[in-house]
C-alpha cells in the first residue's frame, strides 16, 4: 500500500496600506482555513536591533508605512500536481482579499507543509489554528478542456551544437571583430577561453546560455539593448539552423513583451499605490530596438516556414507594426476554426490591426482553455491590451516549438 502524499503548504504574502486593513485581511484568510497568519509592518526587520537589516534603508521605499500579512495554507490528501487547478483558484481568491482591503498580493511560495510551518516567522502572529487544513472541494477542479491543436508544423532542425556555435561565433566576428568591441552579452563568444572550452552537449544548452547572457533570468538591461542587433543578425543568418533561428526568435518575442508582462504582474500594486504604469528604461529601449527590425525580418516572409511566419507575425504585433505582409500572411497559415491555434491567430490579428474591441472575445476564448491567461485575466486592474501582449509569446511558442526537432544525443 502506497504512502499517503505529504501535506502541501502555500505561504501567501499580502501588502496592505494600514495595520487595520492588514488585520482585517488576516482574519479573512484565517476564516478560509489558513493555519498560521501573521501581521507585521512592512520591512519589519529594519526595526529589530538583532536583525541584519536593522537601520538599513528600505529596499522598497514606496511601501514605507504599509503592512504585510503572511499566511500559511495547508492542503492534505493529494499529490501536488492534482492540486494545481485548485491552487490557481485560491491565488485568485487571496488576491481578491487583498484588493478588497485596498492592497495587493505580493507573492506566494510553496513546499512541504511541515517544512513551511517550521520556518514560518511567528513575529506578529494573530491567528493560529493548529493542525488546520484548507477544506478541499470534492471532486477537485480540473484544467479546462483544451481545443485540438492546429495541423503539425513542418519540422525544423536545431542543428548540431558544434555547428551552431561555429555559426554564431562567425556572425559575432563579422559584426564586432573581437571581444573588446562586442557588447557584454556577445564578448564571451569571442573570448579565447570560450574557444578552447568544453564543447556543448546540445544546441539547446548553448542557446540557453546565450539567452541568459543577453537577459539574465529574462530581465532587460542595457546589455540586452546592445545585444538586440546581434540577435537579429542571427535570426536572419541562413548558416544558423532553422530550428535554432526559431528559438532565437522566441527569445525576441519574450524580450519584446517584457514591459507588458511586468505591467500585468504588477497591476494590483500599481492600482493600490495610485500610480501610473511606466516600463523601465531598459524594457522600453529593448522593445524599441526590436521594433526597428520587423520590416527586415518580414522581407524574408516568402522564404520562411509557416512556423517561423507565425512567430514573425507575433513579433510584428508585439512591436506595434502594421505591416500588410504579416496581416495577410497570417490569414493563410494553417489554423482551422475551433483549434487552439485559431484562437492564438485571432489574438495576433487583433493586436496587428489595433482592434481593442476584438481583444475582449479573443481573450475570453483563450481564457476558456488556457489556465495562465484565465488567472491573469481575473485581475480587474489588468489592461486587456497589455494582457494580450504579455500572453502572446507563451501561446505562440507553445505551438511552434512542437515542430522543432532536437539534435540527437551525443554518444
Topology readout:
Blueprint: E1 8-16, H1 19-31, E2 36-41, E3 67-75, H2 84-100, E4 104-112, H3 113-119, E5 125-128, E6 156-157, H4 161-176, H5 184-187, H6 192-195, H7 203-214, H8 222-236, H9 242-256, H10 258-265, H11 267-273, H12 281-291, H13 294-298, H14 306-318, H15 324-330, H16 340-353, H17 356-367, H18 371-377, H19 384-400, E7 404-405
Parallel strand pairs: 6-7
Antiparallel strand pairs: 1-3, 1-4, 2-3, 2-5
Helix pairs in contact: 7-9, 8-9, 8-12, 9-14, 9-19, 10-19, 14-15, 14-16, 14-19, 16-17, 16-19, 17-18, 17-19
Low-confidence stretches: none
Please tell me the overall pLDDT: 92
Q: How are strands sequenced across the largest beta sheet?
A: 4-1-3-2-5
Radius of gyration, in Å, reads 24 Å
Tertiary shape: globular
Per DSSP E runs of 2 or more residues, the count of β-strands stands at: 7
Strand content: 5-15%
Helix content: 40-55%
Tell me the major beta sheet: 5 strands, antiparallel
Number of helices: 19
Helix and strand composition category: alpha+beta
Helix and strand run: EHEEHEHEEHHHHHHHHHHHHHHHHE
Distance between the termini: 40 Å
Structure description:
The protein has 411 residues and is an alpha+beta fold. Helix content is 50%, strand content 10%. The chain has helices spanning 19-31, 84-100, 113-119, 161-176, 184-187, 192-195, 203-214, 222-236, 242-256, 258-265, 267-273, 281-291, 294-298, 306-318, 324-330, 340-353, 356-367, 371-377, 384-400; strands at residues 8-16, 36-41, 67-75, 104-112, 125-128, 156-157, 404-405. The strands form two sheets. The chain has a five-stranded antiparallel sheet with strand order 4-1-3-2-5. α9 (242-256) runs parallel beside α14 and α14 (306-318) packs antiparallel against α19. The chain is globular. The two termini are 40 Å apart. The mean pLDDT is 92.
Amino acid at each position: 500500500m502506497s504512502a499517503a502524499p505529504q501535506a502541501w503548504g502555500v505561504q501567501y504574502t499580502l501588502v496592505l496600506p494600514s495595520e487595520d486593513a492588514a488585520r482585517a485581511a488576516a482574519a479573512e484568510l484565517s476564516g478560509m482555513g489558513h493555519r498560521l497568519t501573521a501581521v507585521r509592518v512592512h520591512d519589519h526587520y529594519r526595526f529589530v536591533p538583532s536583525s541584519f537589516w536593522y537601520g538599513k534603508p528600505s529596499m522598497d521605499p514606496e511601501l514605507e508605512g504599509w503592512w504585510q500579512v503572511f499566511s500559511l495554507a495547508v492542503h492534505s490528501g493529494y499529490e501536488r500536481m492534482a492540486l494545481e487547478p485548485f491552487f490557481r483558484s485560491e491565488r485568485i481568491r487571496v488576491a481578491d482579499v487583498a484588493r478588497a482591503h485596498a492592497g495587493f498580493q505580493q507573492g506566494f511560495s510553496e513546499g512541504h507543509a511541515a517544512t513551511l510551518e517550521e520556518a514560518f516567522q511567528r513575529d506578529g502572529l494573530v491567528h493560529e489554528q493548529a493542525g488546520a487544513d484548507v477544506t478541499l472541494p470534492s471532486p477537485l477542479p480540473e484544467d479546462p478542456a483544451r481545443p485540438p491543436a492546429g495541423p503539425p508544423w513542418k519540422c525544423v532542425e536545431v542543428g548540431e551544437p558544434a555547428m551552431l556555435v561555429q555559426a554564431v561565433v562567425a556572425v559575432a566576428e563579422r559584426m564586432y571583430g573581437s571581444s573588446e568591441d562586442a557588447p557584454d552579452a556577445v564578448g564571451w563568444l569571442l573570448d579565447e577561453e570560450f574557444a578552447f572550452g568544453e564543447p556543448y552537449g546540445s544546441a539547446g544548452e548553448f542557446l540557453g546560455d546565450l539567452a541568459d547572457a543577453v537577459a539574465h533570468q529574462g530581465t532587460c538591461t542595457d546589455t540586452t539593448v546592445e545585444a538586440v542587433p546581434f540577435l537579429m543578425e542571427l535570426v536572419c543568418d541562413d548558416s544558423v539552423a532553422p530550428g535554432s533561428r526559431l528559438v532565437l526568435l522566441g527569445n525576441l518575442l519574450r524580450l519584446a513583451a517584457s514591459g507588458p508582462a511586468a505591467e500585468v504582474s504588477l497591476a494590483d500594486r500599481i492600482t493600490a499605490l495610485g500610480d501610473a504604469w511606466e516600463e523601465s528604461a531598459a524594457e522600453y529601449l529593448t522593445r524599441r530596438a526590436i521594433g526597428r527590425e520587423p520590416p527586415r525580418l518580414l522581407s524574408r516572409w516568402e522564404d520562411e516556414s509557416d512556423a517561423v511566419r507565425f512567430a514573425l507575425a507575433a513579433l510584428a504585433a508585439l512591436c506595434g507594426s502594421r505591416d500588410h505582409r504579416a496581416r495577410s500572411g497570417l490569414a493563410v497559415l494553417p489554423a482551422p476554426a475551433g483549434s487552439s491555434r485559431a484562437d492564438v491567430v485571432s489574438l495576433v490579428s487583433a493586436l496587428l490591426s489595433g482592434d481593442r474591441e476584438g481583444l475582449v472575445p479573443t481573450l475570453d476564448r483563450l481564457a476558456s482553455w488556457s489556465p495562465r491567461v484565465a488567472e491573469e485575466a481575473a485581475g480587474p486592474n489588468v489592461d486587456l491590451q497589455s494582457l494580450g501582449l504579455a500572453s502572446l509569446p507563451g501561446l505562440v511558442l507553445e505551438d511552434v516549438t512542437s515542430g522543432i526537432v532536437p539534435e540527437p544525443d551525443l554518444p
